[in-house]
Design goal:
Radius of gyration: 17 Å
Shape: globular
Number of strands: 8
Helix content: 10-25%
Strand content: 25-35%
CATH superfamily of the largest domain: 2,3-Dihydroxybiphenyl 1,2-Dioxygenase, domain 1
Number of helices: 3
Order of helices and strands: HEHEEEEHEEE
Strand order of the largest sheet: 1-4-3-2
Largest sheet: 4 strands, mixed
CATH architecture of the largest domain: Roll
Structural class: alpha/beta
Length: 130
């Protein structure tokens, strides 16, 4: 019986990620046009929900002031799963996206990873095959 009770309050997945931005219109164009996310519905004049192919989602909320942070501040990031890290990197580079590293890093096997910024300065990541 204890095992059944424990299973009821375990995390079973990620429903969606929330991204808070200052300029909703600029961020919306980035997530929709540059990253190619599909908007599922609007949530007022400065928020929307994007549905991802794996049935999770991304909630984009505008009109937020970024918290001040220093070099030692911990931050949360999330990782997009992509088919090809190199192809995604090149597409984002052509769109003028800012990156943390000069190219995708090999993480072992057929896994390549890179970090980049959205227009509000949030750190995003991508992981996929070469």
């Amino acid at each position: 019986m204890r095992g059944v009770e424990m299973a009821k309050h375990r995390v079973k997945g990620l429903a969606f990620a929330s991204v808070y931005v200052d300029d909703f219109e600029k961020a919306y164009r980035f997530y929709a046009e540059v990253l190619g996310l599909e908007k599922e519905y609007d949530m007022g004049s400065a928020a929307c929900f994007f549905k991802l192919p794996d049935n999770t989602g991304l909630y984009l909320q505008g009109k937020n002031k970024a918290a001040s942070y220093g070099e030692d501040t911990m931050r949360t990031a999330f990782v997009f799963s992509v088919e090809s890290a190199e192809a995604t990197y090149e597409r984002l580079k052509a769109a003028g996206v800012r990156f943390i590293y000069a190219e995708p890093k090999h993480m072992g096997g057929d896994n390549y990873w890179f970090q980049f910024y959205d227009p509000a300065g949030n750190i995003l990541e991508a992981l996929g095959g070469k």
